[in-house]
Design the sequence.
């Protein structure tokens, strides 16, 4: 059996990943499937942290474009990530995986406050750690939160789970001639304007030499393949 390529990862999930084919909210079957995939790699002895977006419930940027105060909208979006983190926690614990939710926004009845040393201690104790509440500040996306938390816990890689099997020159859902990239540099992503993660997140990863692997989450077993096969999806480094 192959040995895992990485020892400690940060898995970045979009809120939309939890909604499946529904237009809004969470599909419990999808949440269960994601939890089972995480459980599979957890059994390999890998330390796992997760960041979940909130776009299936509320998008702060979209709301601000429609007239809502941007700061207020972003805080509401951060609260949505706490809801999704709790949903993922519930699915993981039902699958038999111990988890802890650590939030950058204090909600002590629901989650522990984010403290770096506490997060690392939980990982050392083989618990899956879910980072909620974004960065705790408006004007930053959960992509930036994922990059920041991955660097703080000394993760080996960010696994960016999407609905397509890598990074393309254009949206492959709209253009069948879109070219897939197997490898990219951080600067290529920024110069080409590829919508992998926002520019702040990419810059953070570039400054700290943290690789990003973009892969298709919807295909069962792909999280495990990303851990064992360096050729899956698109690698940004």
Sequence:
């Amino acid at each position: 059996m192959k040995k895992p390529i990485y020892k400690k990862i940060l898995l970045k999930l979009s809120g939309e990943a939890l909604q499946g084919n529904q237009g809004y909210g969470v599909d419990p079957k999808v949440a269960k499937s994601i939890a089972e995939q995480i459980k599979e790699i957890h059994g390999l002895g890998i330390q796992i942290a997760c960041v979940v977006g909130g776009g299936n419930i509320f998008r702060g940027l979209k709301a601000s474009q429609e007239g809502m105060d941007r700061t207020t909208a972003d805080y509401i979006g951060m609260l949505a990530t706490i809801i999704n983190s709790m949903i993922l926690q519930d699915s993981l614990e039902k699958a038999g995986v111990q988890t802890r939710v650590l939030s950058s926004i204090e909600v002590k009845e629901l989650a522990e406050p984010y403290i770096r040393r506490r997060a690392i201690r939980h990982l050392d104790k083989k618990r899956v750690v879910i980072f909620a509440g974004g960065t705790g500040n408006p004007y930053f996306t959960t992509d930036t939160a994922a990059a920041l938390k991955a660097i703080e816990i000394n993760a080996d890689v960010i696994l960016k789970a999407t609905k397509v099997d890598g990074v393309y020159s254009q949206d492959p859902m709209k253009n069948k001639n879109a070219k897939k990239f197997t490898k990219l540099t951080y600067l290529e992503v920024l110069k080409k304007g590829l919508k992998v993660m926002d520019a702040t997140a990419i810059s953070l990863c570039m400054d700290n030499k943290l690789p990003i692997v973009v892969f298709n989450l919807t295909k069962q077993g792909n999280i495990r393949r990303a851990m064992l096969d360096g050729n899956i999806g698109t690698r940004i480094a």
Summary: DSSP finds nine helices and eleven strands in the chain. The CA atoms of residues 169 and 194 lie 7 Å apart. Residues 8-236 form a domain with the Carbamate kinase fold (CATH 3.40.1160.10).
